[in-house]
Specification:
Strand content: 15-25%
Strand order of the largest sheet: 3-2-1-4-5-7-6
Helix content: 40-55%
Number of strands: 7
Oligomer: single chain
Number of helices: 11
Shape: globular
Largest sheet: 7 strands, mixed
Structural class: alpha/beta
Radius of gyration: 18 Å
Length: 287
């Protein structure tokens, strides 16, 4: 899972800075949380399901901190959100727990929007938005009580480095929780290449890969909440919403990108149906 150069980060940054991508996430995904949702029913709005994912991850962070530090996730805690996107996770954590959040993200365009929404909601005093890479976190060792991420590590070609950095900045007793789109065990990379190509990496990680990495980094009480069954619903909902909003999307995104969406989303849905993908919340605590 190694090999991403700075050019790989440049590709990720260019993708998320795109006006086409921004419009798609705004219209179809809701512009707040841009990750896989946990759906209460198949027709649920994508934004509602995505927010439920944030809460499940937040529950894990709170549980791990209470267990290891015997202290709640509250105003005296600081959380690092890696690949923070539009800031939905950071805002939810700040609103729910009153904790401070440092939101690290490559895309300057997303970060600008993130800061503006924080100010509108009166959360700019709790959330610091930093433009930078999770391969080289600009923070000292042991700076955070918790580290989280939602579907950002799939963009990395050096996931061991990302995890090493995440654990480095955790305080003793600190908690790590993240979601990621992963390959099922023993799935050959070429089977997923049509779907994965847009991510700028050669392959996805697996649950066993993350298990090994977290163990080698010395994390304790690790686990995986498997929500892989949500993937089919999620990609079906994205496909449905994209089709339903085609007229709106045509007014805001280019013809080529819309065609790409209509080709790529069903590929992901098909991979999920064939059992080639895994997804859920991975977590652990630093002793």
């Amino acid at each position: 899972m190694t090999g991403q150069s700075h050019s790989g980060e440049d590709a990720t940054r260019e993708y998320y800075d795109s006006g086409d991508v921004d419009a798609f996430y705004d219209l179809v995904w809701g512009g707040e949380d841009i990750h896989t949702g946990i759906y209460a029913h198949p027709g649920e709005p994508i934004a509602d399901a995505s927010r439920r994912t944030v809460d499940r991850l937040a529950d894990r962070l709170a549980d791990r901190l209470a267990h290891r530090l015997a202290h709640r996730l509250g105003p005296d805690r600081t959380v690092l959100d890696l690949g923070s996107g539009y800031g939905g996770t950071a805002r939810r954590l700040a609103e729910r727990f009153g904790c401070r959040v440092v939101a690290l993200n490559l895309s300057a365009a997303q970060n600008e929007r993130h800061r503006a929404v924080n100010a509108t909601r009166g959360l700019d005093g709790l959330i610091e938005v930093v433009t930078g890479s999770f391969h080289d976190i600009p923070s000292p060792d042991g700076a955070f009580d918790a580290v989280c991420s939602l579907e950002a590590f799939c963009h990395s070609g050096d996931r061991p480095k990302v995890l090493s950095e995440a654990v480095r900045v955790l305080k003793p007793g600190g908690a790590l929780a993240f979601t990621d789109i992963m390959a099922a065990e023993d799935v050959r990379p070429e089977a997923l290449r049509p779907a994965v190509s847009r991510l700028g990496v050669d392959a996805l990680a697996t649950v066993s890969f993350y298990d090994r990495q977290l163990a080698e980094l010395g994390l304790a009480a690790t686990g995986f909440d498997d929500h892989s069954g949500q993937l089919v619903t999620h990609y079906d909902r994205l496909t449905e919403e994209t089709a339903a909003r085609t007229a709106e999307l045509r007014g805001r995104i280019g013809v080529a990108y819309l065609a790409h969406l209509n080709e790529n989303l069903p590929v992901w849905a098909d991979a999920a149906r064939r059992g080639l993908l895994r997804w859920g919340v991975l977590y652990g605590s630093r002793p």
